[in-house]
Design brief:
This protein has about 150 residues and is an alpha+beta fold. It contains 6 helices and 6 strands, in the order H-H-E-H-H-E-E-E-E-H-E-H. Helix 1 crosses helix 2 and helix 2 packs across helix 3. The longest helix is centred in the N-terminal third of the chain and has 13 residues. About 15% of the residues are buried. It binds zinc ion (ZN) (3 copies).
């Protein structure tokens, strides 16, 4: 965990982003929940409790900057934006399995894009997002089944 924090601060420095108290606290908060996506609303609420004078805009801008430099991964689904600390700073492009019960995120090493580009020879693909959903091993062992999932 200390190592990830150091790696993130190095990235901030390389991108000429000052390590303010707020950015440091934001990194630490994201690190405590490293294996799950956290709703930006929750992140914002936490930061504004720690720093009462901090504006919503500053929190969102900091998250955006973190995303741009590759510290944070973002996922938007049904108008909910969620963020997560980067799984691995060394190979940034990857996909995720997300447990629908506990929210745990597992990193997938393969990108299926080559398979799709072969089927779209006339098209110029400008981006993609791809995530798998299901029930993780721990939750299955605890007896969670597809039919008992709580829909949110
Ligand atoms: Zn990831
Ligand atoms: Zn799970
Ligand atoms: Zn990909």
């Amino acid at each position: 965990m200390a190592e990830s924090l150091t790696a993130a601060m190095t990235i901030l420095r390389q991108n000429k982003l000052k390590i303010t108290k707020q950015r440091h606290a934001l990194l630490e908060f994201l690190l405590t929940n490293q294996a799950h996506y956290t709703d930006v609303v929750t992140v914002n609420a936490y930061m504004r409790t720690e720093f009462p004078g901090m504006s919503h805009n500053t929190v969102y801008r900091n998250l955006k900057e973190f995303e741009e430099v590759g510290i944070v991964e973002q996922n938007t689904e049904q108008e909910r934006t969620r963020v997560k600390y980067q799984c691995d700073f060394h190979h940034q492009h990857h996909h995720h399995f997300i447990c629908q019960n506990c929210g745990k995120v597992i990193e997938l090493q393969m990108c299926p894009m080559d398979f799709f580009t072969a089927q779209l020879p006339d098209c110029k693909i400008t981006g993609h997002s791809f995530e798998l959903y299901g029930i993780c091993g721990t939750c299955q062992a605890a007896g969670v089944k597809e039919t008992t999932l709580v829909k949110n």
